[in-house]
Amino acid sequence: MKQLMLGNKAAARGLYEAGCCFVSSYPGTPSTEITEEAAKYDEIYCEWAPNEKVALEAAFGASLAGRRSFCGMKHVGLNVAADPLFTMSYTGVNAGLVIAVADDAGMHSSQNEQDSRHHAIAAKVPMLEPSNAAESLAFAKLAYELSEEFDTPVFLKMCTRVAHSQSVVETSERVVPEKKAYEKNIPKYVMTPANAIRRHPMVEERMKKLALWAETAPINRVEKGGDELGIITSSTCYQYVKEVFGDSVSVLKLGMINPLPEKLIRDFAASVKRLVVVEELDPIIENYCKTLGLTVEGKNLFPVTGEFSQNLVARAFGLETPETWKLDENIPPRPPAMCSGCPHRGMFFTLKKNKCTVLGDIGCYSLGAAPPLGAIEMTLCMGASLSAIHGFNKAGEGENEKHTVAVIGDSTFMHSGMTGLANIAYNQSNSVVIILDNSITGMTGHQQNPTTGYNIKGDPAGKIDLEALCKAMGFERVRVVDPYDLAACDAAVKEELAADGPSVIISRRPCALLKYVKHKAPLVVDTDKCVGCKSCMQIGCPSISFKDGKAHVDATLCVGCGVCSQLCKFGALTQQ
Amino acid sequence: MKTKNVMMVGVGGQGSLLASKLLGQLLLDAGYDVKVSEVHGMSQRGGSVVTYVRYGSSVASPVIDEGEADFIVSFELLEAARWLSYLKKDGQIVTSIQQVDPMPVITGAASYPENLVEKMRATGAKVDAMDCLKLAEQAGSAKAVNMVLMGRLSHYFDMPEEAWQKAMEVIVPPKFLEMNKVAFHLGKNAN
After folding, report:
1. Which domains are delineated in chain B?
2. Are A531 and A503 found together in one domain?
3. B59 touches chain A (CB under 8 A)
4. Would you tell me how many other CB atoms lie within 10 Å of the CB of residue A145?
5. What pLDDT does A496 receive?
6. Which residue in A166, A331, A372 is closest to B113 by CB distance?
7. N or C: less crowded end of chain B, CB within 10 Å?
């Protein structure tokens, strides 16, 4: 049956049909839905792991045990999983192992726009790159066949537009291959120098064999359309090229991006007068063509940054784009903002009020850097807040520690905050760490994590006690505050900054968007009492606006958290 | 058939995903090739969001570019104005007149432009503007703005009423179906 399916859901369907039995991932936009959709199939064991490295190693273990396994992540997650990846390339697999990595050109929801193809090349791991949902499904299945035939993990490389676009797919039945027996094989699986040195030549040999396979693989195909212009492309860029040119130019559509097919590319280049590579982000195919000595164009016409589109491709070739309407009006931007009732807001307001230097981390709470709070001064990568505050305070000669705090979410803390905390405890910096515990992985759309007590299916699971964990690491000062209580937040921040020795403040209140969170009645403004001082607007709540010289609360948005009313000296904001 | 383009724009959390799902189902049932592109992740948190729906005999790109949209369906007035350059020269805007202040307006760094419907019309663009929130509330829920807008869009679509009904039955959970059908009709028949 034909149906519309999200690229990520189609990839999950591919896992299902290929008989995948084990999935371990860490959420990250735009990869998250692959694992969420896979978890809807009862036949597949699925889990959220604490981070991508753990997830990939778990998937490797399942492959060793003889079951087809999967691990999904976003591009920056692959940096975390790079350690096992590079050596897994040497060991190879037992049952098939597929790794999905989703790039985010244009940075819709990411801190950088690195190109994952570099990782595939550097780790010498084959990479398939679908251009729509139907290919996401088909390539996921093909990836398992390649993984087992060539004894290697295989990448399925997604990008935002493939992952988050729905297109038409046709599904088929699930076929589960027979479980492969696990056999002890020390030279293959124990990567000590003596063994690894024998495996490396096998990796090189495998890449040569895969390159030969790529020469005639149907997923790398030439679509002939005259000899004036030939375009080499893949992924979503293929769709933009087809949108602009239809069948009027020749196209080499690559479904496998590593390794690249030398002869196929040479023959294609020889068949056209002008050769152009259309690829988002880095010039990887283009540079490969250059190493072959081919005359090729690419980044002389196209940007290295951002997403492409049909108009961008048309303009690069000097073609006209449609006329547009122009409105002569200053349209204010609408950046994402912390939601009404967000538990992070009260803590960020407190930090701003106390003029703290705040080293931040990755999650919804990075929105604390936006006006009017502007409370975060650094965001780097998962877990960096805790490691960086240690260095900042050690090098700060007793000055920085008086006003600096690190903030990190519960899921990010589990991901890679614990090791930073261990460094503070071990090497003894006088650092204040605030764990913003909203009891969920928020930004990626509410995934469970080791602190929530539930698993990916919403069933009860193990629950890590943050207070006990911090105490076990040697922190004597561990306290919990409710971020809806501004006075308590203020006292906690002041006291812990003044205290001698490191401390942890757990700012605990579940995300206001969680279904089980009961909202209170919206606040109302007593216009007789409101003097229009705008004190309540310092917290940047989307429910509060200023109308006719008075504060106004949007009753459809307000969830009654009451933080604004604590700022009103005139008692003008009250619960109905 | 040349590819047709419908853009849905609004503020994160306004329910555009369900509307695009409905449209996708409707067009798939009608035998078209369809692509729908969505936004997930950070921009959903109260930011400006856009969904692209494209259909035709064979659709390549999943996104709609400037000057290409046959329709812009907008859940919020400022967003209709923001995305105006994406409208085709003979395209049609269908917009709710609801206004949601963005953070720069809340903080006082910017002001919400006035008379946007008139200003958009003054450029020559075709703008169908109505109070969708009021109609949705009349149907039983402020959340039904998406179905009010779909009803209005159906006005301009060469597609039988039954086809919309059928797609709604597939997409909308049974307990909300009646209310959504009412909202659809209110949108369709509004003056």
Report:
1. 4-189 (3.40.920.10)
2. no
3. yes
4. 13
5. 98
6. A331
7. C
